[in-house]
């Protein structure tokens, strides 16, 4: 089993799109694949599950979800003071069950998801104070007989949940959108990953920087990417071009490989997937 985290503390760089489309290709190629959504925005969950994973003021988040897992980690007495629907959560995913108790099947063969929850952040302080930083790692390891690949989508912040994901992972993919501000933030991001590697997870590797929204005919993106390479950063050769097809993919809740398998953007994702898989 191989676990990948898709992480950038800058929002809007395509984390969820990259997570889901690589996971969908993985599943299409026969790997038993799980997506874990740690971002309270739940974009990955909604991408795969559609309306079922869409929440609003009058519609609760889909359960069981990753918040229920962390509630279970804390224990019933702690969580009841934090989350109003804790009793229902526990009934749907009884304490003591493994991480697989929170899995939802998608309509795509070989592809499952543990959805996010908008109130996940309410548990962060309690989880930190009780030193639960290794619980996700330990639970993911118990899934090795069930899955070949796990992809984790993270929030746009270096917080408890991101750190938990990095501790649990073998590799990290860093989305990058050819923006000058993104380039400036890369150094801090990489320092955070290296610190996690040194302190918590010596097997963690930066698999590469995924260049998203890359316009090969434009001067600035070419210059920015070249600067990254000149700085010795691990830029992956499989770069992702901009396309309106991605918005259609989101709207229809269909990963690109199922929506338009021969489209140039889909083929770019396949190239990227094959590149990272060849690194094993």
From TrEMBL:
Top-level lineage group: Bacteria
InterPro entries to which the protein is assigned, alphabetical: AAA_dom (IPR025669), DNA_Partitioning_ATPase (IPR050678), P-loop_NTPase (IPR027417)
Transmembrane portions of the chain: none
Residues covered by the AAA domain: 5-206
One of the Pfam families matching this protein, by short name: AAA_31
Coiled-coil segments: none
Official protein name in the record: AAA domain-containing protein
């Amino acid at each position: 089993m191989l676990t990948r985290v898709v992480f950038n503390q800058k929002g809007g760089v395509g984390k969820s799109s990259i997570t889901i489309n690589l996971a969908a290709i993985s599943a299409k190629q026969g790997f038993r694949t799980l997506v874990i959504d740690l971002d309270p925005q739940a974009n990955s969950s909604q991408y795969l599950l559609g309306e079922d994973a869409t929440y609003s003021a009058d519609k609760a988040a889909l359960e069981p979800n990753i918040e229920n897992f962390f509630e279970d980690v804390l224990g019933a007495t702690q969580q009841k003071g934090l989350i109003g629907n804790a009793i229902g959560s526990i009934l749907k995913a009884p304490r003591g069950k493994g991480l697989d108790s929170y899995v939802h099947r998608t309509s795509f063969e070989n592809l499952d998801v543990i959805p996010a929850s908008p109130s996940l952040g309410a548990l962060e302080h309690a989880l930190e104070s009780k030193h639960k930083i290794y619980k996700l790692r330990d639970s993911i390891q118990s899934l090795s007989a069930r899955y070949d690949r796990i992809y984790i989508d993270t929030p746009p912040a270096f917080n408890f949940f991101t750190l938990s994901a990095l501790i649990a992972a073998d590799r990290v993919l860093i989305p990058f959108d050819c923006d000058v501000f993104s380039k400036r933030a890369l150094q801090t991001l990489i320092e955070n990953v290296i610190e996690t590697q040194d302190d918590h997870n010596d097997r963690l590797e930066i698999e590469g920087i995924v260049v998203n929204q890359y316009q090969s005919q434009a001067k600035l993106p070419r210059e920015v990417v070249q600067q990254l390479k000149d700085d010795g950063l691990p830029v992956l050769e499989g770069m992702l071009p901009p396309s309106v097809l991605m918005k259609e993919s989101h709207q229809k809740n269909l990963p690109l490989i199922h929506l338009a398998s021969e489209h140039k953007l889909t083929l770019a994702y396949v190239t990227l997937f094959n590149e990272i898989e060849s690194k094993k």
